[in-house]
Write a structure and sequence with these properties.
The protein has 360 residues and is an alpha+beta fold. The chain has a single domain, classed as archaeoglobus fulgidus dsm 4304 fold, CATH 3.30.2170. α4 packs parallel to α6. The two termini are 33 Å apart.
Length: 360
């Protein structure tokens, strides 16, 4: 098989020999969960955790946009080719007003000297682009790929490393932070009445209490919710599950974030709620992180669930359609940077008397 073309034969044999044992382990865990489905669902119902979307008022169809970002570092001999981009894609609509004819984006690309601080700063730059698109989108519902906590951690890493990042990248990051009011945008996002974070995967489990004393495999909240929820059901809003000692990471450098603003960020995160929603039987449950204005309002929650439900129309798409498209688009950033790399090589070779390209 072409997939194994570059692997040693002995390694391939050892790898294939592990396929069935791994499959058996996965199957045993899933079977244990399936066998406990009735009792787990009964316990969730006893706790009042299972709710039906049909019991909420039917809202008008909201306009929806999905936002995702990506970054690339291509390491050449003399320089790093670096790029960051964010893409916003409008969702499908039957009744809601369409605002855009095509996707919107933000992009930055440059060649930089090698530096250990490139990745963190570049990732922070990517987040600032996502926040810019989210702030300017005119839609009723804004879906962000990933979690709110990851946004905070990436911004913190970017701010912590930017002082020693290459000058061109440092100046671009600081310009955006200052001119676009990234801090204020982030704080506003945490208290938004129209923005929801939709992480594809998360090790957090807000439903962990269901597993207590059941001798079941450790699993995440999304898997449990997929097991116990029927189509059209969602779980009651719960605080975000915190890993031990994790709270120490939820901060921004004091030089970039006043103490009062940091307290406000902490309060917004404490007010954040998580629900799991299973719109159809052919998709797994979706983890949704909701700011307080949405989690505390059945009207806004109904709008969110209705908007997300409308973005599923094929078993081939297991996340809201605009996030699916945005993800595919930004993952192609690497191919774009590779084209720039080829253009750089051709330009340097053409400008060199002997065609010297070893420094690339």
């Amino acid at each position: 098989m072409e997939a194994f073309a570059d692997l040693p034969d002995a390694l391939v044999q050892d790898l294939l020999a592990k396929a069935l044992p791994v499959a058996d382990g996965v199957n045993q865990n899933l079977q244990a969960l399936r066998q406990a489905k009735a009792s787990l669902r009964a316990e969730a119902e006893r706790r009042g955790w299972i709710r039906r979307k049909a019991d909420l008022d039917v809202p008008r169809e909201p306009s929806v946009v999905g936002i995702d970002g990506s970054y690339q570092v291509h390491r050449l001999t003399a320089v790093d080719l670096c790029a960051a981009a964010s893409v916003a894609v409008e969702g499908t609509s039957k009744e809601a007003k369409r605002h855009w004819e095509k996707p919107h984006h933000r992009m930055w690309v440059e060649s930089l000297e090698h530096s250990k601080n490139v990745t963190n700063t570049l990732r922070g730059l990517m987040i600032s682009m996502e926040l810019d698109l989210a702030a300017k989108a005119p839609h009723d519902l804004v879906l962000l790929d990933g979690s709110f906590i990851i946004l905070l951690i990436y911004l913190n890493q970017g701010l912590t490393s930017v002082g020693e990042a290459p000058q061109i990248l440092r100046e671009e990051f600081q310009r955006r932070w200052r001119d676009e009011g990234v801090l204020d945008r982030f704080v506003g996002l945490l208290a938004s009445d129209r923005t929801v974070a939709v992480p594809k995967y998360s090790g957090r489990n807000e439903l962990a209490e269901l597993l207590a004393g059941n001798n079941l495999p450790e699993t995440d909240g999304k898997t449990l919710a997929t097991l116990i929820l029927s189509p059209g059901e969602y779980t009651a809003p719960e605080p975000i599950y915190h890993f031990g000692g994790e709270d120490q990471e939820y901060h921004l450098p004091k030089s970039s974030c006043p103490e009062q603003t940091q307290k406000l960020i902490n309060q917004h995160l404490a007010d954040m709620r998580v629900i799991f929603f299973r719109p159809f039987g052919w998709v797994p449950a979706i983890r949704l992180e909701l700011p307080k204005p949405i989690a505390s309002s059945l009207t806004r929650l109904s709008m969110v669930l209705h908007g997300i439900e409308r973005q599923f129309f094929s078993p081939a798409v297991i996340e809201p359609y605009p996030l699916f498209l945005a993800d595919r688009m930004v993952k192609s950033l690497g191919a774009g940077v590779a084209v720039i790399e080829q253009a750089v090589a051709q330009h340097v070779a053409g400008d060199s008397p002997d065609g010297e390209t070893t420094m690339l």
